[in-house]
Fold this sequence. Notes:
By secondary structure, the chain is of the alpha+beta class. Among the domains are: 109 residues, Trigger factor ribosome-binding domain (Alpha-Beta Plaits); 91 residues, Chitinase A, domain 3, CATH 3.10.50. The chain is built from 14 helices and eleven strands. A hairpin with a 3-residue loop joins β3 and β4. The longest helix is centred in the middle third of the chain and has 34 residues.
Amino acid sequence: MPSTVEKLSPTRAKLTVEIPFHTLQPHLDQAYKSIAEQVTIPGFRKGKVPPNVIDVRFGRGVVLQEAINAALPDAYQRALNEHQISVLGQPEVEVTKLEDGDVVEFTAEVDVRPEFDLPDTSDIAVEVDPVEVNDEQVEERVNLLRQRFATTNEVDRAAADGDVVVVDLKGSLDGEPLEDATAEGITYQIGNGGMLDGLDEAVVGLKSGESKQFRSTLVGGALKGTECDIEVTLQKVSEQELPEVDDEFAQMVSEFDTVDQMRADLRDGLTRMARLDQATSARDKVLEAIIAKTEIPLPEALAAAELDARRSQVNAQLAQAGLTLEQYLADSDEETDDEEGFWADIENRTFDALKAQLLLDKYADENDIGVEQAELSQLIVRKAAQAGTSPEQEAQHMMEHNHLPEWMQEVRRTKALGALVENAKVTDTAGASVDLSAINPDGTIKEVEEGADEPAAEEAPADEAKPKAKRSSKKKAAEKSDEDAEA
Length: 487
C-alpha cells in the first residue's frame, strides 16, 4: 500500500495512504456477509442475500464504508511502520479519494514524538543526602512496636497525659450548633497531637462523664479555619501499659532472641529504606538535569490534555477534602502560597513529566531495551505490596483492564532511566560516591566476589531478594508495625 508522510510541525505529521481495491476486497466480502446476516429480505434466506440485492436495497456506499472502516487500522499501522513514526495519541482520519473498483485514499494527521538529540550524561553531577540512621530513629521503631503490643485498662480516675480516652465533641458558633464540628465516640491518645488545639488541655483532669468548654479553630471540613466554641465530654479513660524492652519482648514481636538482635534488624531495615530513598532522589535529580539540557518540543494537543487532566485531578482532591485552593496553600508546605504561582508550578511539573516520558521512550527505542517476564513479575509484586493485594490479584487486574502495554512501558522507562543515571556522577553531601547499580530492589547491596571489580550478584526479584529466614507470626506482626510506620 503506497504511503507518504508530510511533517506539519516538529510534533505533528500527516500520512497519506492508498488502499488498492484488491487489498480492500476481503473486507468488502466480509461487509456483504455481515449485512446479509443482519437483514431480512423476502425471497431470500437470512445470510444468503446476494451482493447486488444489498447494493440496490441499502446502497453500495454503506458496504464501502464498512469495508473501509475495517481496512483502515491495518493500513494506518503499516504506514507508521514503513516510515518509522512514533505517534502520540489518536489520528484525525479523512477519506480523500474513493474510486470504486480502483483505489481508496485517506489521510491521517497525528501528533508524533519530536526529533531531538539525547544528551551526554557523563558530565551530569548531582548530590544527595548520605545514608544515615541514628539511634533515635531505631528507638522510634522500638516504641512503635511497644505501642502496637501495649495493653490498655480502663481506670476510674481523671485523665492524664498519655491516657487513651473516648470523648464526644459538640461545636457551636454564637450559640448555634455546628453539625460539621460535632462527633461522638472519638478515641485518641492524649499528647499524640493531630486533634483540635486546646483539646488535650481541656481533657486532662476530667473524669468519666464530665465536660468542659474551650475555643478552638476547626482544622478540616467546610468550616476549616473557623474559630468556635467546643464542648468536650469525657466518656472513658484507659491507662496504657507499654511492655518492657527486654529479650522476652524481642521474642514476642520478632524472630530474634535478644533485644540487640532485634534492634540490629530494625536498623538494617531503616538503612535499606534510606538507601532506596537516596537512589530515588538521585534518579530524580539526574532526570531533572537531563531534561534541563535537552530541547524537547511538546505536541500542543497532548500537553493541553495532560494539563487539563492534572488540573481536574487537583480540583477533585481539594473538593474531596472540603478545601479551597486558598485554604490548602495556607496550610501546606508548597513553595508558593499564591494561586497563580501554584498553577504555574503544576504546569511546569506536568510538562516536565511529559518530556521525561518522551526522552526515556526514545532512549529505550534506540538502545533496544526490552522487558523480561521476570521484570514484569517484579513490577506486579511491587504494585501488590503498595496496594495491599496479592500478586495474583494484581496480575488479574492487569489482564482485565488491559494494563499490560502500560506496565511494560513503565518497566522500559525505569530501565532506560537506570542506564542514563549510570553515566552520571552521583555523590552524597559528605563527598562519598554513590553507586546506584549496586543497590538491590529491596535496598540491600549486591555482593561482590572476592577480587572482582563489579557486583557479581544479579538483581533478585522483589519477592526473592529478602533473606530466606523463616518468619514466625510474631515477626509478621512486627513487619506490619513497620508498614504502619511507613504509612
